[in-house]
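Chain A, query sequence.
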Amino acid sequence: MPPSKPRTPRRRGQHEKAAQEEGLAASYQAVRDAYAEREATFAAVMADRADWDATTRHQRHLAAADAELRRRHPTRQYPPLRSAEPSPATQAQRDELTLTAGAHPRDRPVDRGPAAQHHAFAGKLADRQSLRIPSEDSDYGDLGQAFPPWPIPAAEAILQPPKPEIQPLPQILERTLEPGLGMEVAD
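Chain A, predicted structure.
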């Protein structure tokens, strides 16, 4: 006798329970889709972060140099640096990101959130990286990128002391001077 199929509420005639379970399943599917969409958005945000890191590396090094200059010369007056960072998210914006069962994620406005910030940032970055310096001679073309990516600064100092010469042990020198010593593999 073949195994019997589990009887679902619809097969048992419990239409209300079946409709309730189908609604719950649709809600879970919507939440799954919303989280998959968020995962893709956050992956794009991380890619943007890597682009931002590469693009602003020089400016951040200048800010560190400014901080060091202020630390070394505390009596001098310098104008304060201005931050280009966006303001932190409000509690209402954070609450908006929390999904609950039964709520449809498409009810959120499209013009806010990480996806919209990603598109805005990607547009600004592309605009900045596409700027070219025009040549005075229009037949010549342009002079190159207006904001070229900065090279990664060297981790070591440019001038290095010479590496010390390693002297072999006297026993090694004696063995190399022995007559009849061939190239043998050590046991």
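The helical segments are 15-55, 57-72, 91-96, 114-130, 170-177. Residues 18-70+111-149 form one domain.
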